[in-house]
């Protein structure tokens, strides 16, 4: 067993080992060890309203669509059309009714310990990173630490950075930045850092490795994302909430999107600020103790997570089999299966994250998310799960399947319209029939169904807008009632245009998954200067062609259907300029100056975000070539080696080829520049972990030798 699979590791910049057993869970077997909790009061009422309301609304929508296409008998294709419409309509009906429930039912807030009476606990602020720019991450961690210290709560928290970086330059920059952060917070809050050599099971495996090796140190851990920021007030509230309920395993805040400059980022963060509170409230109201986990900005009871949330690999080959990629929904379901409560705190506030900056960035992220959510098909039937958790898993699956179903619905509608137009109908289907069956496509009723669908689809936005009008903080933050109204109209129009592009993209992603293509693990861009025309054209030219192929037949088939599908067609036809505009900060900033798409973090910047940005602006520039930097800065090279866990030992009979070739190239090179030009990425990684090879590289430039290996050993 390697260290990355659970073997304890010592050294580097981590605390002493404190292993905690984290058994892998069996999805096919489960022995109940805790009594089941039934839903009562507000939760029961919310569930009744949400699911009964969704069922009734879906049945009504399906009945109306049946009336549109039905003559005397209904063909198999028409039945398929009605069935697909009912499924997709039910999907948007669930969101609509949930939003309405979020408006009328205030979810039960978790119990909380008063700040002065909080028990003495130790909580880790866990920050997993993967080939990120560490500057903003370190700035956020320092801002959060200072905020906690100023509140007098710093003694209960420690920062733990868990790196899975595979890029040597990103790794070295992390080492420099987080070592500096440790020095800045010395004596006030501990800062720990660990980089794994093997990325087993990605982020979920990264966190599990931390728990298995150091979990006993901590009562709770607050899991973050690389762009997460939480105020001290929120962190203390989360810690107090989970400490007050000894059966609460996870408490999830609802992060707000912030910091976006591009058009697409500002659209998303405005939607999150105006519609998000209602959606979050509705979800929390009917979830109750069967809440969900979004992977970050949530506090978790370490013992509960170790006991219940060890993820198994799914059977079969990638992309469906293997490690579970979208781990958060599954971990919440497993915690609940073991009897731990999982709650959401939608009204807490003070929890922030960033949005992908462009449509292309969202598409790249969605490729990984699509694969992870489709994997949940292998989890949703697991033994012992509570039905609300199965609903959470189903919504994740359907959030991507719905795109393919909507596209299929459109194509079947085209076929049915073509049949009505070009195929000669059989007026007398029965032998002794006196009156003919006239073919019918009820265009007037179809327009009514279209209007009904639009109302249901936009209901969360409508409810969020109405709340914003009457909720003074939201109204003021959005620039006033008039600015809010125009911003909502702009968001709805642009979202309607972007939606068909994402529909086609996600359908293609599902096709890739069905063909067995794995998504890999791509670092998410947190900011952009805008996507190049070449990249935009390469991705979206086929979407424009699809818009043309969809529009042309409708001109001759059915003008009503053309009007119904006009938002879809227009979005596809404009795919290239829409995508290009999505990543332009100039457009986003122009809208800000016009007081459109404003959010509270812009009009009244939270102090925690202001402090993070100040710290980030004051940071020195980081080196682009990490190995060259370490070769020229011996003290940093020594500290880098001492700051990191040692490389796993080479087993007898299994030499490390990259280590051997790296040393050979250093021996053969006449100067440092030549050696750096020869080294491959894996060879650079080996050198960055080896004091002796770093010294050898520095010696090529005739830098005075300083006994690095012996000094590094002493420091370690």
Structure characterization notes:
The chain has 716 residues and is α/β, with parallel strands linked by helices. It is built from 29 helices and ten strands. The chain has helices spanning 41-69, 76-104, 134-150, 168-184, 202-214, 232-244, 263-274, 276-287, 302-308, 327-337, 359-375, 387-422, 443-470, 472-477, 481-514, 533-557, 559-564, 566-573, 575-582, 585-593, 600-603, 607-617, 626-632, 634-643, 657-668, 672-678, 681-688, 691-699, 708-715, and strands at residues 123-129, 157-163, 191-195, 220-223, 229-230, 248-253, 256-257, 298-301, 341-345, 351-353. The longest helix has 36 residues, at 387-422. The two termini are 24 Å apart.
Summarize the structure.
By secondary structure, the chain is α/β, with parallel strands linked by helices.
Q: Helical region count?
A: 29
What is the radius of gyration computed over CA atoms, rounded to a whole number of angstroms? Answer: 28 Å
Low-confidence sequence ranges: 1-7, 433-439, 703-716
Shape: globular
Proportion of strand residues: 5-15%
Helix share, percent: 55-70%
The pLDDT mean sits at: 89
Got a strand count? 10
Supply the helix-strand structural class. alpha/beta
**Cα distance spanning the termini:** 24 Å
Largest sheet: 7 strands, mixed
Describe the strand arrangement of the main beta sheet, using strand numbers.
Answer: 3-2-1-4-8-6-9
């Amino acid at each position: 067993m390697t260290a990355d699979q659970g073997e304890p590791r010592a050294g580097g910049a981590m605390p002493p080992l404190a292993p905690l057993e984290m058994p892998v869970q069996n999805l096919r077997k489960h022995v109940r060890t805790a009594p089941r909790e039934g839903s009562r009061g507000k939760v029961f009422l919310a569930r009744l309203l949400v699911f009964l309301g969704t069922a009734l609304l879906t049945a009504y929508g399906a009945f109306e669509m049946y009336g549109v296409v039905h003559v005397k008998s209904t063909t198999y294709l028409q039945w398929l059309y009605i069935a697909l419409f009912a499924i997709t309509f039910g999907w948007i009906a669930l969101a609509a009714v949930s939003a309405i429930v979020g408006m009328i039912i205030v979810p039960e807030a978790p119990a909380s310990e008063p700040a002065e009476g909080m028990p003495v606990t130790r909580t880790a602020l866990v920050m997993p990173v993967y080939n990120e720019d560490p500057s903003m991450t370190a700035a956020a961690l320092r801002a959060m630490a200072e905020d906690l210290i100023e509140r007098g709560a710093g003694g209960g928290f420690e920062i733990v950075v868990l790196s899975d970086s595979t890029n040597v330059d990103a790794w070295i920059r992390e080492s420099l930045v987080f070592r500096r952060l440790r020095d800045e917070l010395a004596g006030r809050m501990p800062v720990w850092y660990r980089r794994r050599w093997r990325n087993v099971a990605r982020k979920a495996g990264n966190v599990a490795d931390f728990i298995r090796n150091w979990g006993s140190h901590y009562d709770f851990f607050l899991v973050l994302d690389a762009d997460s920021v939480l105020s001290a007030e929120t962190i203390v509230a989360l810690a107090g909430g989970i400490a007050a309920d000894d059966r609460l395993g996870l408490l999830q805040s609802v992060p707000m999107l912030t910091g976006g400059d591009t058009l697409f980022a500002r659209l998303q963060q405005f939607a999150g600020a105006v519609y998000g509170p209602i959606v979050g409230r509705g979800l929390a109201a009917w979830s109750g103790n069967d809440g969900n986990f979004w992977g970050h900005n949530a506090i978790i009871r370490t013992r509960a997570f170790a006991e219940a949330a060890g993820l198994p690999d799914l059977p079969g080959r990638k992309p469906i089999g293997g490690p579970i990629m979208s781990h958060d929904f599954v971990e919440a379901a497993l915690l609940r299966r073991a009897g731990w409560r999982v709650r959401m705190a939608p009204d807490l506030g003070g929890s922030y994250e960033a949005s992908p900056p462009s449509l292309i960035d969202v598409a790249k992220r969605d490729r990984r998310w699509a694969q992870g959510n489709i994997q949940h098909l292998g989890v949703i039937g697991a033994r012992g799960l509570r039905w609300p958790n199965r609903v959470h898993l189903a919504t994740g699956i359907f959030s991507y399947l719905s795109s393919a179903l909507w596209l299929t619905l459109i194509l079947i509608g085209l076929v049915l319209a073509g049949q009505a137009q070009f195929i000669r109908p059989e007026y007398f289907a029965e032998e002794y029939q006196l009156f003919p069956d006239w073919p019918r496509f009820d265009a007037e009723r179809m327009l009514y169904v279209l209007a009904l669908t639009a109302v249901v689809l936009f209901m969360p936005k409508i409810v969020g807008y109405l709340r914003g009008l009457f909720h003074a903080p939201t109204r003021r933050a959005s620039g006033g009632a008039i600015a809010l109204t125009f911003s909502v109209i702009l968001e709805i129009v642009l979202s309607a245009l972007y939606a068909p592009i994402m529909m086609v993209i996600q359908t293609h992603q599902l096709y890739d998954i069905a063909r067995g293509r794995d998504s890999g693990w791509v670092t998410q861009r947190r900011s952009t200067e805008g996507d190049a025309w070449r990249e935009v054209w390469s991705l979206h030219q086929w979407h424009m062609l699809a818009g043309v192929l969809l529009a042309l037949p409708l001109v001759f088939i059915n003008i009503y259907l053309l009007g119904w599908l006009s938002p879809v067609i227009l979005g596809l036809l404009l795919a290239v300029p829409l995508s290009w505009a999505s990543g332009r900060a100039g457009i986003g900033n122009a809208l800000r100056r016009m007081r459109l798409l404003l959010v509270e973090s812009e009009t009244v910047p939270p102090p925690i975000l202001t402090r993070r940005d100040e710290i980030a602006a004051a940071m020195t520039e980081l080196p682009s070539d990490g190995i060259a930097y370490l070769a020229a800065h011996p003290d940093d090279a020594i500290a880098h080696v001492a700051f990191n866990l040692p490389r796993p030992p080479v087993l007898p009979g299994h030499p490390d080829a990259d280590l051997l070739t790296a040393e050979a190239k250093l021996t053969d090179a006449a100067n440092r520049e030549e050696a750096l030009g020869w080294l491959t990425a894996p060879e650079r990684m080996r050198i960055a972990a080896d004091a002796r090879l770093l010294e050898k590289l520095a010696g090529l430039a005739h830098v005075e030798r300083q006994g690095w290996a012996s000094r590094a050993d002493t420091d370690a």
